[in-house]
Specification:
single chain; 4-stranded antiparallel β-sheet; alpha+beta; Nuclear Transport Factor 2, Chain: A; 131 residues; 31% helix
Protein backbone atom coordinates (compact mmCIF):
# COMPACT_ATOMS: atom_id res chain seq x y z
CA UNK A 1 0.00 0.00 0.00
CA UNK A 2 1.28 3.45 -0.89
CA UNK A 3 2.19 5.86 1.89
CA UNK A 4 1.95 8.83 -0.50
CA UNK A 5 -1.59 10.04 0.34
CA UNK A 6 -0.83 9.90 4.07
CA UNK A 7 2.46 11.80 3.61
CA UNK A 8 0.73 14.48 1.54
CA UNK A 9 -1.94 14.86 4.24
CA UNK A 10 0.67 15.22 6.99
CA UNK A 11 2.51 17.92 5.02
CA UNK A 12 -0.76 19.78 4.33
CA UNK A 13 -1.59 19.67 8.05
CA UNK A 14 1.95 20.77 8.91
CA UNK A 15 1.60 23.83 6.66
CA UNK A 16 -1.77 24.69 8.21
CA UNK A 17 -0.17 24.32 11.65
CA UNK A 18 2.68 26.67 10.63
CA UNK A 19 0.16 29.33 9.57
CA UNK A 20 -1.73 28.99 12.85
CA UNK A 21 1.43 29.03 14.99
CA UNK A 22 2.87 32.14 13.36
CA UNK A 23 -0.41 34.03 13.57
CA UNK A 24 -1.81 32.91 16.94
CA UNK A 25 1.08 31.15 18.72
CA UNK A 26 -1.13 28.06 18.76
CA UNK A 27 0.99 24.91 18.63
CA UNK A 28 -1.84 22.43 19.23
CA UNK A 29 -2.02 21.24 15.60
CA UNK A 30 1.77 20.92 15.39
CA UNK A 31 1.79 18.22 18.03
CA UNK A 32 -0.17 15.93 15.69
CA UNK A 33 2.16 16.32 12.70
CA UNK A 34 5.70 17.19 13.85
CA UNK A 35 8.41 15.85 16.14
CA UNK A 36 9.20 17.67 19.39
CA UNK A 37 12.51 18.89 17.92
CA UNK A 38 10.75 20.48 14.92
CA UNK A 39 8.09 22.06 17.16
CA UNK A 40 10.79 23.51 19.42
CA UNK A 41 12.73 24.90 16.43
CA UNK A 42 9.62 26.68 15.09
CA UNK A 43 8.76 27.88 18.61
CA UNK A 44 12.13 29.62 18.99
CA UNK A 45 11.68 31.41 15.66
CA UNK A 46 8.14 32.52 16.48
CA UNK A 47 9.13 33.69 19.98
CA UNK A 48 11.89 35.89 18.55
CA UNK A 49 9.38 37.63 16.27
CA UNK A 50 6.86 37.81 19.09
CA UNK A 51 9.43 39.62 21.25
CA UNK A 52 9.62 42.20 18.46
CA UNK A 53 5.78 42.43 18.64
CA UNK A 54 5.45 40.80 15.22
CA UNK A 55 3.21 38.06 13.93
CA UNK A 56 3.01 36.65 10.43
CA UNK A 57 -0.14 36.26 8.38
CA UNK A 58 0.50 33.66 5.71
CA UNK A 59 -1.32 31.79 3.01
CA UNK A 60 -0.18 28.74 1.08
CA UNK A 61 -1.50 29.51 -2.39
CA UNK A 62 -0.22 26.41 -4.19
CA UNK A 63 1.67 23.22 -3.44
CA UNK A 64 2.89 20.63 -5.93
CA UNK A 65 4.37 17.37 -4.73
CA UNK A 66 7.45 16.79 -6.90
CA UNK A 67 8.93 13.62 -5.43
CA UNK A 68 8.09 11.25 -2.58
CA UNK A 69 10.65 8.68 -1.42
CA UNK A 70 10.06 6.27 1.44
CA UNK A 71 12.49 3.87 3.05
CA UNK A 72 11.18 1.98 6.05
CA UNK A 73 10.12 4.46 8.71
CA UNK A 74 11.65 7.48 6.94
CA UNK A 75 10.43 9.56 4.03
CA UNK A 76 11.64 12.54 2.01
CA UNK A 77 9.13 14.69 0.16
CA UNK A 78 10.08 17.44 -2.30
CA UNK A 79 7.52 20.15 -2.98
CA UNK A 80 7.17 23.31 -4.99
CA UNK A 81 5.19 25.90 -3.00
CA UNK A 82 3.81 29.39 -3.55
CA UNK A 83 3.20 31.40 -0.38
CA UNK A 84 2.10 34.92 0.39
CA UNK A 85 2.76 36.51 3.76
CA UNK A 86 3.11 39.75 5.61
CA UNK A 87 4.32 40.79 9.05
CA UNK A 88 2.04 42.68 11.42
CA UNK A 89 2.63 44.43 14.73
CA UNK A 90 0.26 42.41 16.90
CA UNK A 91 -0.21 45.24 19.40
CA UNK A 92 -1.19 47.94 16.88
CA UNK A 93 -2.38 45.80 13.97
CA UNK A 94 -0.14 47.86 11.68
CA UNK A 95 1.65 46.20 8.81
CA UNK A 96 5.39 45.99 9.51
CA UNK A 97 6.32 44.37 6.20
CA UNK A 98 4.00 44.44 3.19
CA UNK A 99 2.59 41.36 1.52
CA UNK A 100 5.21 39.29 -0.27
CA UNK A 101 4.78 36.41 -2.67
CA UNK A 102 7.48 33.79 -2.29
CA UNK A 103 8.16 30.60 -4.22
CA UNK A 104 9.89 27.79 -2.34
CA UNK A 105 11.38 24.46 -3.33
CA UNK A 106 11.03 22.51 -0.07
CA UNK A 107 12.35 19.21 1.25
CA UNK A 108 10.42 17.61 4.10
CA UNK A 109 12.03 14.83 6.13
CA UNK A 110 9.44 12.65 7.84
CA UNK A 111 9.73 9.82 10.33
CA UNK A 112 7.16 7.21 11.30
CA UNK A 113 6.62 7.00 15.06
CA UNK A 114 4.09 4.64 16.60
CA UNK A 115 2.58 4.04 13.16
CA UNK A 116 2.14 7.76 12.46
CA UNK A 117 4.12 9.98 10.07
CA UNK A 118 5.61 13.15 11.59
CA UNK A 119 7.60 15.99 10.04
CA UNK A 120 11.10 15.73 11.51
CA UNK A 121 12.85 18.52 9.60
CA UNK A 122 12.11 20.96 6.79
CA UNK A 123 14.63 22.51 4.42
CA UNK A 124 14.09 25.35 1.97
CA UNK A 125 16.23 24.28 -0.95
CA UNK A 126 15.36 27.33 -3.05
CA UNK A 127 13.53 30.57 -2.31
CA UNK A 128 12.60 33.40 -4.67
CA UNK A 129 10.27 36.36 -4.51
CA UNK A 130 7.54 36.32 -7.16
CA UNK A 131 5.16 38.96 -8.44
Amino acid sequence: MSEKPELKTVIAKYNNAIIEAYKNQNFEHFMQVATDAEINKIGVIINSFRQADQIMEAELRKIDFQEIKTQGDKADVKTSEDWSYRWIDYKTGQEVEPLKNIHYEMLYHLIKKDGKWLVEKVEAMKESETR
